[in-house]
Design a protein that fits this description.
The chain contains 21 helices and four strands. It is mostly helical and 507 residues long.
Amino acid sequence: MEGQNGSRAQEEEKEEKEEIPDRVTLKKEIGLLSACAIIIGNIIGSGIFISPKGVLEHSGSVGLALVVWVLGGCIAALGSLCYAELGVTIPKSGGDYSYVTEIFGGLMGFLLLWSAVLIMYPTTLAVIALTFSSYVLQPVFPDCVPPYMATRMLSATCLLLLTWVNCSSVRMATRIQDVFTVGKLMALGLIIMVGLVQICNGNYEALTPQVAFAMERTPSVGQIALAFLQASFAFSGWNFLNYVTEEVVEPRRNLPRAIYISIPLVTFVYTLTNIAYFSSMSPEELLSSNAVAVTFGEKLLGMFSVVMPISVALSTFGGINGYLFTSSRLCFSGAREGHLPSLLAMIHYKNCTPIPALLVCCAATIVILCIGETHNLINYVSFINYLSYGVTIAGLLYYRWKKPNLFRPIKVNMLVPVCYLMFWALLLGFSLYSEPVVCGVGLVIMLTGVPVYFLGVHWKEKPKCIYKFIERMTFVGQRLCFVVFPQIDPIVIDDPSERTDTSSSKS
């Protein structure tokens, strides 16, 4: 009996050791397939189901709207090439924030972090969650708009469920992303197939050049710039793999490969989806619809039209998961640099997931949901997004000048960042001219981070009572979430300035 009890105790002890990892650190569990799923899954959220209306409204014609969609994809491709270089040169999680902090210093990085945590990602998550709940409830309320409280409650429930999944396991979260990304592509594939059938049956009059480029009014350059901002909302997320670089298997190989596969695929799918919309719906029908994909399904799928809201709901569900996964890593990176409370830089001792950062992202999104109407914030988000992209890519040029001998596994042609920045400057300039209030509010939101930075980060000699309070709150948070500081991978903390450019390849 004693021998059996002893062996049982040894087995239990062995099981406990197997449950707790040898090193508490972020796990490298994102392969090439999951990397592509993260990019595609974050781009294809609610944008393709919301933005077609805004792009058509501002561009003034079907033909120009399609041109905006194609060029929007090309611009995203240029930007992603630049981010591929930055991602393998500065191999840190955190994306724009980490690169700008490394290149320009703490204040610039903090301003990007502040605007992203305060409004950019919570608002985007809220919009996607509301789109999810609207499409799920559409069959239940076919003749009216779903009740305000019902959409908010369902959105919050979805957020809480996916936050729990992301807190439980990185692998589970990436598997959900893989499955729902396939579901998104199937949903858009259904729209494209139905559209192609319509075109084969001769319903393509709206796509002929004479009709497609016919305009009742000639759009101003500012209106076209706003059309690009609407399209940019649909393409936002192309840089999100850079937020989880430290969790990618062989990032110097898989990060650029995932970008090269995903961006052209999404551009191709988006363009064909819009062609399908225009082959089956008049511009007036599209502009009057609050749920473009549902209207499309009701017109062409008959009794199977219920498939459309379900497909869109699945698409947006995957988008919420992807945004939660990546935006929480931004909070984690910011805390690790000392720009956010240190509790957010901790991970679960067993699951190795950044639970405090995930909870903050979830809570911020629920606050935005409770505030009220969120769709008016899309232009603010798009403006801040574009501003951060431009600053980051300008940083690439400055870094080339500042550290010309730095080893760069990928080195894009200089024309790529220059072309992107020229387009970026034109778009932002015309956006400021056309919508000074929207752009001004976006700038004010970002600049409110300046006093916060100097009070919270730069000011080191704070009263002892503040430090004691922070220490106490951190201790309570650790006890509640079972989190500790991760052990740092030596590869991650390697100073990129110590590597010299002995052999760099161009792409």
